[in-house]
């Protein structure tokens, strides 16, 4: 018997059974459930020690949502332009929001008129009911959009929703009261709809005008994939959305928004201080390491150019939506100079995209490790301002990008016959001669 050939008269009991990797659906589900229970416990303890989050001696849940609700309150009472007045905003937040009364933290309104239009109704409800409605609505949308990337390969009994709801990315977003579940959900829906509902896909992309820096790469991928109907729909949506926003909020909110961007550039990016440790960007990593502003921007620009090149490569080579959204989300995070821990909901979308491809073609042990690391990254970013450890976020993005490009290359070359490293390993095991029974 030669090595590498299967024995012809092998007894069924001697057949080699494939060994499951320790990172699998069951262990991921158990880990996610444990994380979800921990999150619920933390929220419960927080509510108990702060008298239902009403103790103003400490900053409570929804500090960033205080800005959304505050902008609505100011717009409804004083006019939309006043939302960009930092002093007015801080007065409202200290009166109604969850920021500690003695806090010197500044929470300006940094959003364009498009998002001001979206949050306008929030203050029609008191703060806490408004917070709950906003978080539940955007959260349900995000879970549906993320799980939609998996298609019909994941059944309800798999309880895949636990890996989303129990993720650190969702925890940080809900804790801060941010809009990142909405933006990441729109991106996921746009890619999911692109083939069968191109017009709706364009509408989803156009609605990302609420946070323009996260939508900058969509025109590039639509051009690369020649998705003309989606591109036209997105352009029309942006123009209509911007037009209605300016008509309702007033044209003066445009220069006010641009001025807020300049303020954020100077005070939160170039000179962010502690903020750098919660910003998973090459720029923040360089600044935290002591490099100058110009050098940090050069590093960020270099990373952005490489990321865009990889993005175009993936979208031109393959049509698989899972890998496409994974590369798009990863490249978006690599190109944006301003990115906070709560926006890693986009990274979870990238993870879901890779898992979507992996359910069909397998995942290697190394790929599984990278996906788990990406899933856990928001937790590191959230506590890092206290630890002040080197910023590892960009390195995780790079690992994700390399993973996606590699899988896209293999898929383009082999198609349905794609053999992941895991499958190759299993075939190698199966071709080993069986050990005789003792």
UniProtKB/TrEMBL annotation:
It comes from Ralstonia pickettii (strain 12D). One of its GO terms (molecular function) is hexosyltransferase activity. This is DUF2029 domain-containing protein. Signal peptide: none annotated. The keyword Transmembrane applies. Belongs to the glycosyltransferase 87 family. The lineage of its organism: Bacteria, Pseudomonadati, Pseudomonadota, Betaproteobacteria, Burkholderiales. It is found in: Cell membrane. The chain crosses the membrane at residues 27-47, 67-86, 106-125, 131-150, 162-193, 199-224, 231-254, 288-315, 392-409. One of its GO terms (cellular component) is plasma membrane. Pfam families: GT87. Its main location: membrane.
């Amino acid at each position: 018997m030669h090595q590498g050939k299967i024995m012809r008269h092998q007894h069924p009991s001697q057949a080699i059974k494939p060994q499951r990797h320790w990172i699998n659906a069951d262990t991921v589900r158990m880990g996610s459930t444990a994380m979800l229970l921990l999150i619920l416990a933390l929220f419960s303890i927080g509510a108990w020690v702060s008298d239902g989050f009403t103790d103003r001696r400490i900053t409570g849940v929804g500090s960033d949502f205080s800005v959304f609700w505050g902008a609505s309150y100011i717009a409804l009472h004083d006019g939309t332009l006043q939302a960009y007045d930092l002093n007015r905003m801080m007065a409202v937040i200290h009166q109604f929001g969850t920021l500690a009364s003695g806090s010197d933290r500044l929470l300006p309104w940094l959003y364009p008129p498009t998002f001001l239009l979206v949050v306008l109704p929030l203050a029609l409800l008191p703060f806490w009911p408004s917070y709950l409605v906003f978080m539940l609505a955007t959260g349900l949308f995000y879970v549906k959009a993320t799980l939609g990337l998996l298609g019909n390969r994941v059944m309800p009994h798999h309880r895949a929703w636990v890996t989303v709801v129990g993720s650190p990315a969702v925890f940080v977003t809900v804790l801060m009261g941010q809009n990142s579940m909405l933006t990441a959900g729109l991106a996921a829906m746009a890619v999911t709809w692109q083939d069968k509902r191109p017009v709706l896909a364009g509408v989803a992309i156009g609605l990302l005008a609420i946070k323009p820096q996260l939508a900058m790469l969509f025109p590039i991928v639509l051009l690369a994939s020649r998705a003309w109907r989606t591109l036209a729909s997105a352009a029309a949506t942006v123009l209509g959305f911007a037009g209605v926003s300016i008509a309702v909020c007033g044209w003066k909110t445009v220069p006010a928004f641009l001025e807020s961007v300049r303020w954020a550039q100077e005070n939160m990016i170039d000179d962010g201080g502690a903020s750098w440790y919660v910003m998973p960007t090459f720029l923040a990593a360089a600044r935290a390491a002591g490099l100058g502003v110009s050098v940090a921007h050069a590093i960020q620009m270099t990373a952005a150019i490489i990321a865009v090149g990889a993005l175009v490569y993936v979208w031109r080579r393959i049509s698989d939506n899972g890998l496409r959204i994974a590369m798009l989300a990863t490249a978006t995070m690599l190109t944006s100079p301003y990115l906070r821990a709560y926006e890693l909901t986009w990274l979870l979308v990238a993870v879901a995209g890779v898992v979507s491809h992996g359910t069909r073609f397998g995942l290697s042990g190394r790929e599984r490790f990278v996906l788990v690391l990406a899933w856990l990254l928001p937790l590191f970013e959230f506590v890092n301002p206290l630890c002040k450890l080197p910023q590892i976020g960009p390195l995780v993005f790079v690992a994700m990008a390399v993973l996606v490009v590699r899988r896209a290359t293999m898929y383009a070359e082999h198609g349905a016959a794609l053999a992941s490293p895991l499958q190759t390993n299993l075939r190698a095991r199966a071709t080993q001669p069986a050990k005789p029974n003792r």
